[in-house]
């Protein structure tokens, strides 16, 4: 009954983003859920998230880990600590471990190469990296070591806004995450990207173009979550202008569901997480509603308790008091409550030979 909207125009996407009629939005949720079922099935893949360092050289205007934030105590996990968590991921039955950090050059190419080799050898899990805009030689070495996937959100397709929120640092003349994503695909990674919803200055038009760009890049994974203001950042201090009122996208839960559902319809084969930022806006139901409106992945947090609160990309993040075991039990219960199944195996991108 429901077909993916593979040929949706940018105008059509924008008009869905502006839709407020509750009955029409119900049809959008239902279409996204049906396409999710048809293309990627009822399994919900579990990716164990390990926030291995909060050190960062960058100055991203939205992120609490930015180098200039002196209020945060910095940490980097030791290799042994990471291996304990990776083994736990395996015991929990996760198919993937995600290693995420600020852009931290005390994580050297060699160190990460050894870590990837050790995780693959000992656990056999799929390894996803999310370590920022690392040089080509690093990305090449880690792929050769066996890393399977790389996550790098482009955050917005509006180049002017992109440059405002990503001032060049670390001897960089220009930051171009879209170019890096194309390169990641060439290197043979499954490439993941995504955007925040409701960044000050972000327009409806630009979010419609973000979704069209997800489709054009043929991304394997796409994460979308609401922007949440962090007081120690330029965006959190409202130092950057909002778009005119009828153009500015709000950073609300409902807007996030619209983007998630439209992303499922535009990119039916992609793996889409129901994000922690969404759960932060609605602790009781955010994860479930995301999974019912297009998402098929969750990322339970494996980060040891002493580090969780320090990985504060935004305030009041969901699940910072919990242990890995708590997050594991909670996610499984939420998945079961929807009549869905925890995924088995690595849960990589499934390509359909023929269209439905
Ligand atoms: N250093 C890595 C990982 C960053 S954290 C990188 O740059 O890719 C992962 C994601 O968290 C970011 O890509 C961004 O989309 C999101 N994030 C950062 N600050 C946020 C905020 N204030 N509100 C919501 N999401 C945020």
Span between N and C termini? 11 Å
What fraction of the residues are assigned to beta strands by DSSP?
A: 5-15%
Helix content: 25-40%
Q: Radius of gyration, rounded?
A: 19 Å
Oligomer: single chain
Q: Can you write the helix and strand succession as a string?
A: HHEHEHEHEHHEHEHHHEHHE
Enumerate the spans where pLDDT stays under 50 for 5 or more consecutive residues.
none
Question: What small molecules are bound in this structure?
Answer: S-adenosyl-L-homocysteine
Biggest beta-sheet profile: 8 strands, parallel
Helix-strand category: alpha/beta
Write down the overall geometry: globular
* Average predicted confidence as pLDDT: 95
Give the helix tally. Answer: 13
Tally of strands:
8
Keywords for this entry:
356 residues; alpha/beta; eight-stranded parallel beta sheet; 40% helix; globular; binds S-adenosyl-L-homocysteine
Brief sketch in words of this structure:
The chain is α/β, with parallel strands linked by helices and 356 residues long.
Describe the structure in your own words.
With about 350 residues, the protein is an alpha/beta fold. About 40% of the residues lie in helices and about 10% in strands. The chain has helices at about 10-15, 20-40, 80-90, 110-125, 135-145, 160-165, 175-185, 205-215, 255-265, 275-280, 285-290, 305-310, 325-335; strands at about 45-55, 95-100, 125-130, 150, 190-195, 220-225, 295-300, 340. Strands 1, 2, 3, 4, 5, 6, 7 and 8 form an eight-stranded parallel β-sheet that branches. Helix 3 links the parallel strand 1 (about 45-55) and strand 2 (about 95-100). Helix 2 (about 20-40) packs across helix 9 (about 255-265) and helix 8 runs parallel beside helix 9 (about 255-265). The protein starts with 9 loop residues before the first helix and ends in a 14-residue tail after the last strand.
């Amino acid at each position: 009954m429901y077909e993916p909207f593979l040929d949706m125009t940018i105008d059509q996407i924008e008009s869905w983003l502006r839709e407020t009629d509750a009955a029409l939005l119900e049809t959008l949720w239902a279409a996204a859920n049906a396409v999710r079922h048809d293309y990627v099935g009822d399994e919900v893949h579990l990716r164990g998230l390990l926030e291995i360092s909060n050190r960062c050289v960058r100055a991203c205007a939205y992120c609490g880990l930015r180098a200039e934030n002196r209020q945060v105590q910095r940490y980097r996990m030791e290799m042994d600590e990471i291996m304990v968590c990776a083994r736990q991921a395996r015991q929990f039955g996760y198919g993937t471990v995600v290693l995420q950090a600020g852009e931290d050059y005390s994580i050297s190419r060699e160190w990460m190469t050894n870590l990837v080799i050790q995780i693959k050898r000992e656990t056999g899990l799929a390894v996803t990296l999310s370590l920022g805009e690392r040089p080509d030689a690093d990305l090449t070495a880690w792929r050769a070591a066996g890393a399977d996937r790389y996550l790098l959100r482009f955050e917005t397709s509006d180049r002017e806004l992109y440059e405002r929120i990503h001032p060049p640092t670390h001897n960089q003349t220009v930051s171009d995450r879209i170019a890096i994503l194309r390169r990641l695909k060439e290197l043979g990674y499954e490439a993941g990207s995504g955007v925040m919803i409701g960044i000050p200055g972000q327009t409806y038009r630009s979010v419609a173009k973000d979704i069209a760009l997800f489709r054009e890049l043929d991304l394997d994974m796409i994460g979308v979550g609401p922007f949440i203001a962090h007081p120690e950042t330029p965006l959190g201090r409202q130092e950057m202008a909002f778009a005119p009122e009828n153009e500015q996208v709000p950073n609300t839960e409902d807007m996030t569901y619209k983007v998630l559902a439209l992303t499922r319809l535009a990119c039916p084969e992609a793996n889409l997480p129901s994000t922690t930022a969404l759960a932060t806006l609605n602790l009781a139901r955010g994860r479930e509603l995301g999974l019912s409106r297009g998402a098929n992945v969750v990322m339970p947090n494996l980060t040891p308790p002493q580090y969780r609160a320090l990985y504060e990309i935004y305030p009041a993040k969901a699940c910072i008091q919990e242990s890995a075991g708590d997050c594991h039990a909670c996610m499984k219960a939420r998945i079961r409550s929807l009549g869905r199944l925890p995924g088995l195996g690595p849960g990589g991108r499934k390509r359909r030979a023929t269209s439905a």
